[in-house]
Amino acid sequence: MLSLYLALGDSITSGYGVDRSSSFPTIYANFLARHHSDLHLLNQGVNGLTTSELLELLKFNKGLRHSISQAVLITITIGSNDLLSLMGCGNLNQALNPSQLPFILKNMAKTLAHVGEEVRRLNSSATVKVATLYNPLPAGPYAPFNALAQRVIASANRIIVSWAKQYGAVVVFLDREIRGKEHLLIGQDYAHPNEAGYQVIAKAFARY
User: Fold this and answer.
1) CB atoms within 10 A of CB 179
2) 60: burial class by Cβ within 10 Å (0-12, 13-18, 19+)?
3) Helix runs in the chain, H state only
4) Measuring CA to CA, which residue among 74, 189, 178, 69 is closest to residue 133?
5) Do residues 164 and 45 make contact, with C-beta atoms less than 8 angstroms apart?
6) pLDDT digits (tens, 9 = 90+) for 141-166
7) Strands of the 39-43 sheet, one edge to the other
8) How many CA within 13 A on the CB side of residue 35?
């Protein structure tokens, strides 16, 4: 019987900007397969996915619900796209609107709680690993927004860490892995990892 590794989340999970073979779940699964030859990866990452959209999938996608119930390992990257609503249409060239932050963070925390309840209702024993958000802005032309972005991301990461404790998940601190290495690990869109970045993320998931 195959052991299922289910990768959930946004474009960080789907491997935006690189071939699927270079996505972090594939690299991580290949590492795990050295010791678990029966491991099977199912990458369900969706570009642009928000916490509320993830919750909808968990509630109403029967295939996904079945996969969650069968998984021995679940990884999650989520939250970055929720924060993009702080910017007009997600465009960093438009003014950041920090006044929306409390509302966005409150909704994010509430939605993540429902996500945790659904995951654990379907599977109480799987190992769940959830990533913190990283700040890519020092890598490119949006550096003037860096300080504000860092405060926003730090607030979101506190929610993620608290969520992990409540639902028995392991926190993978991607912010620590990326910080100070943005120019080496972030791609040409100044948002997503490059191939080296995805390798670092995979190694972090393996290490935590």
Assistant:
1) 14
2) exposed
3) 11-14, 24-33, 51-60, 62-70, 80-83, 101-122, 146-166, 174-178, 182-185, 195-207
4) 178
5) no
6) 878 888 888 999 999 999 999 999 99
7) 39-43, 3-9, 71-77, 127-131, 170-172
8) 4
Specify the DSSP class assigned to residue 192: S
pLDDT at 89 over 50: no
What residues have CB less than 8 Å from 80, skipping those under 6 apart?
A: 10, 12, 133
Q: Which amino acid is at 52?
A: S
pTM for the complete prediction? 0.94
Q: Is the Cβ–Cβ distance between 190 and 145 less than 8 Å?
A: no
- Would you state the pLDDT for residue 59? 98
Q: What is the pLDDT of residues 165-181, one digit of tens each?
A: 999 999 999 999 999 99
Give the CA-trace dihedral at 23, 24, 29, 31, to 10 degrees: 120
Q: Vertex 27, ends 134 and 66: CA angle to 5°?
A: 90
* pLDDT, tens only, 186-200: 999 999 999 999 999
What is the chain's mean pLDDT, rounded?
93
Name the residue with tokens 């926190």: 171
